[in-house]
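Hi all, posting the design record for the shared folder.

TITLE: backbone redesign
STEP: 1 of 1
STRUCTURE INPUT:
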């Protein structure tokens, strides 16, 4: 599938040799103990494939070298990559992160980092980053969850501020001879954004008027805003890290190659009538600028969540297919348009992200069975790994659903490593959905049905030949190419 720098995986014997893990459990936060409680060691070697990243499997606190190594070993047994979050407190950040990084380095595992906190603040809410009206008075756009978003053309002085935060923390790793192998940010409501009232706000800004030709046209404005947003991320975040660590996987929430359309809305976004969109029943899919390549990112990070409004977008009789359909659209969009040598790590979440207003009916929950089926189809359409986001109250169930799929998939390591997706089609009506990875003359395939139809399905393959896929609920199959 997608080539990833080889990582030495510690063997079960090496883990066992560490010993003493049971005695250290009390040293770890409750969420991490929960993860260890509900997951089991992998039955199949994950080779050099990316680990599973979990929101609750992070930030273990300042541990001794022995406790850090024991925790890293135990999570790696389960295929889980522990990560540490950078904060504004450099000393406290490094006290937590460096023992973990040393343990990961010693065991030949990836050193994983969350750079969300130091990335925030391009739009710092001050007059220096604000829009300016014709009289020079400062004002902000507050239509995106109340954040005080400013003028895209008055943010350059913030680049060195953010970059210094990133470089200071990254240099501490480099000074110890430690790599950073994987670093992500959940950087969302900051910097230039074109959604909600942002476009109309920009039209009232004298600076935007001066610098943005064609400001009145939404698509022109979107292209300009996303180009600036990409430059901020590249200069303050991606390039400084890549200079220190040339092989680093660096990326950000919701930044990924695509077909020019975005099939989902974040919690703070809304569609405004008149904006260009692709219509699908009641869904309005928005134009999406190419921002991945200009950022300099080295992995893609699509987002597959069950946002409550999207349930009402569709009229499918199958309740589950309303959720499944949209999730598969998003995953297929990323899988089809991301280069094979660029890993895809998808944010996932099962519980409905409830955005209903007072008086609105809450949609039914996506079933556990079909959510796990969606995860399988994502893997068979080019998604390399999952990153679970979850509030604390939902985390246990989220891990219980996600980890078994990831663990079971490792049985098909050769297909995951080298297989090529056979289809990115998302059926427009409930029925059989087929995804697979082709490796030579064999295809690892999964079929998920949303009706009672049990008839075999014949799939023509992109590189010639075909396969006939019988119904086999809840199971993968390896089928010879006809």
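Okay, here is what came back for every position:
SEQUENCE:
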């Amino acid at each position: 599938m997608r080539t990833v720098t080889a990582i030495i995986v510690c063997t079960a014997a090496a883990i066992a040799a560490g010993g003493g893990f049971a005695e250290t459990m009390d040293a770890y936060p409750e969420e991490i103990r929960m993860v260890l409680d509900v997951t089991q060691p992998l039955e199949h070697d994950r080779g050099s494939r990316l680990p599973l990243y979990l929101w609750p499997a992070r930030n273990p606190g300042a541990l001794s070298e022995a406790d850090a190594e024991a925790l890293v070993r135990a999570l790696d047994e389960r295929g889980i990559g522990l990560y540490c979050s950078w904060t504004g407190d450099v000393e406290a950040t490094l006290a937590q992160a460096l023992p973990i990084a040393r343990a990961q380095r010693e065991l030949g595992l990836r050193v994983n980092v969350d750079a969300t906190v130091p990335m925030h603040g391009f739009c710092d809410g001050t007059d220096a980053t604000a829009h300016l009206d014709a009289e020079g008075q400062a004002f902000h756009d507050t239509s995106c969850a109340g954040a005080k978003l400013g003028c895209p053309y008055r943010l350059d002085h913030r680049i060195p501020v953010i970059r210094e935060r990133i470089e200071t923390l990254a240099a501490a790793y480099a000074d110890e001879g430690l790599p950073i192998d994987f670093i992500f940010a959940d950087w969302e409501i900051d910097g230039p954004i074109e959604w909600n009232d942002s476009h109309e706000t920009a039209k009232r800004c004298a600076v935007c008027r001066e610098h943005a030709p064609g400001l009145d046209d939404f698509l022109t404005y979107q292209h300009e805003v996303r180009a600036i947003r990409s430059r901020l991320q590249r200069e303050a975040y991606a390039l400084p890290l890549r200079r220190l660590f040339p092989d680093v996987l660096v990326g950000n929430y919701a930044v990924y190659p695509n077909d020019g359309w975005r099939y989902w809305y974040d919690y703070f976004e809304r569609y405004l009538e008149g904006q260009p969109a692709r219509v699908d029943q009641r869904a309005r899919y928005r134009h999406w600028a190419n921002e991945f390549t200009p950022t300099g990112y080295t992995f893609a990070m699509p987002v597959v969540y069950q946002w409550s409004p999207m349930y009402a977008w569709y009229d499918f009789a199958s309740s589950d297919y309303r959720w499944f359909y949209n999730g598969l659209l998003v995953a297929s969009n990323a899988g089809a348009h991301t280069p094979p040598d660029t890993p895809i790590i998808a944010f996932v979440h099962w519980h409905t992200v409830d955005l209903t207003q007072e008086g609105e009916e809450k949609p039914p929950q996506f079933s556990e069975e079909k959510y796990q089926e969606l995860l399988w189809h994502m893997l068979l359409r080019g998604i390399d790994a999952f990153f679970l986001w979850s509030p604390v109250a939902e985390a246990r169930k989220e891990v219980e659903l996600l980890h078994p799929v990831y663990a079971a998939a490792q049985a098909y390591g050769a297909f995951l490593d080298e297989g090529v997706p056979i289809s990115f089609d998302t059926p427009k009506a409930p029925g059989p959905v087929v995804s697979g990875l082709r490796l030579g003359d064999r295809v690892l395939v999964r079929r998920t049905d949303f009706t009672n139809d049990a008839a075999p399905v014949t799939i023509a393959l992109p590189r010639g030949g075909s396969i006939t896929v019988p119904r086999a609920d809840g199971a993968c199959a390896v089928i010879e190419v006809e």
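COMMENT: Residues 3-19 have pLDDT under 50 and may be disordered.
Let me know if anyone wants the other runs.
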